[in-house]
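Format is sequence with structure; example below:
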Amino acid sequence: MTMYPDQQKKLKLIREAVEEQLAARSLGTRSPEGLFAPIDYTLRLGGKRIRPLLACAAATAFTEAWQRALPVAVALEIFHNFTLLHDDLMDRSPLRRGQETVYRRWGDNTAILSGDAMSIEAYASLAEVADKSLLAELLPRFSQMALEVCVGQQYDMEFETRSEVRVEEYMEMIRLKTSVLLGSSLELGALVGGATAEQARALYAVGIQLGLAFQIQDDLLDVYGDEKTFGKPIGGDIVNAKKTLLLLYTLEQLQGEDLKRLQEILTYTPEERRAYIDEVRALYDKAGTRLYAEAEIERLSTEAYRGVEQLPLREEGRELLLALFHTLSGRTK
């Protein structure tokens, strides 16, 4: 699907409006600086702003006045970045978007406290919707999403120390950790735009499918992607023995000596595994893992597109949503 100039223009307009709203919160000028400067720093690192774009596009599917969704869009973006801030701390990641992470720059305690403040700031933005009667619907849904993201992160951490994780468990983990935020972006944006609860929930389901496809695509690119377009070294998940869909599916499919060999490689240190990326990839191919992952991406993406096409949406909003979906499920980096 091609993104036409008018769609690009609308998305650019939405993104600029989101950036203006984030800047208007003046997080970099509040006191104490030690609490708010890391928040401002985190939000200024940028990113694709996918979640606020989805929220405003969903509103556009029901109203011309997509600006109504800006408080929701900003709340989602702040919350998303809060999760990244804490994820970096838990994972001890030194860089985020090429810049030093908050805990490395300000320390663990500041990263915890500034992250907590970000989550509260997200609720403050959500409460700024013009139609206050919507808060009775928005707040419980936002809170449920927030809790589920935490549940997904906990599962992800527990999987690191478990010897066996089933594919179904992994899919549930990424549904919680990744998909519910995309689903909620569509649902909350639609509600502010005037959708019925049923229509908004249908878009939430679409976002879940999209999020799953997004994460599987990410797993696939890490093993089979082009390093120049992917933006980071290929094979990092193999080196770190990360329990991705590709690894878990391969472990379930292989038998005999092939299975023993993969299990042996997993006992090596990360540095040792660097020399075996090609061998592990060959084992993935032998198990049919790439074909399985590509088929899952296609299935989930098709379900997401079909879900949008079956809803009674404004044509401008429908086309904008489908164009956004394409950039996610069909991305190369």
User: Anything to note?
Assistant: The mean pLDDT is 94.
